[in-house]
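Re: the 203-residue chain
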Amino acid sequence: LSFFNATVFQRWWRLRELCGTVNGKTVDTVLLLAAHLKNQHEIDELIRLLWLAHALHVHSVTPHADANEVLTLLRQEGLLLEREASALRHLELDSSTPLAIAYGWFSARFARALQHDVAPSLHSGVLELVQGNVSKMRSAASDVLMYLSTPVPHTYTQLLDLMVTTYVLMAPLGLVDARDGWSPATPKSRAVPARCLRRQSPA
């Protein structure tokens, strides 16, 4: 039971870390864009693509999400353009493919903006930082889906249920000896028989 609890908690904590990676690296990338790019329109478009990828990540872990409804909602929120919606319409949103495509759009646009807005001496450093964040975000989002699609094996859960049930049924048999009132695990020299505890009637 302790091992099972530790395993479940470890999975939950790992999922929490992965979601934190997606959130934190998204904010970190926005700060890098604001610090190194000059064209505000390019910054806005790159941030839109980042939020689009993040929104697709959130909807990918939402149970029974309808793809058309999600894409319509993203269009209404201004995160998704019509041509982008057409590219995503035939994909399953409960997979890592849509968000990987969104990160690809971001990377391609960032590479073009990098050539125009950033000094050549800074190209390699800024590119390494941003692309490193993109790789970590995409990997973490994919791992979240992996954990959700691979739960603890049902056979192991049944085995744990059988062991706990057996323990609960057998434990009372080892606690009290019905004949003398002491526990078999307690030395008889130290045990007090139940019959000695009965109140004696006055003579």
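The chain has a mean pLDDT of 82.
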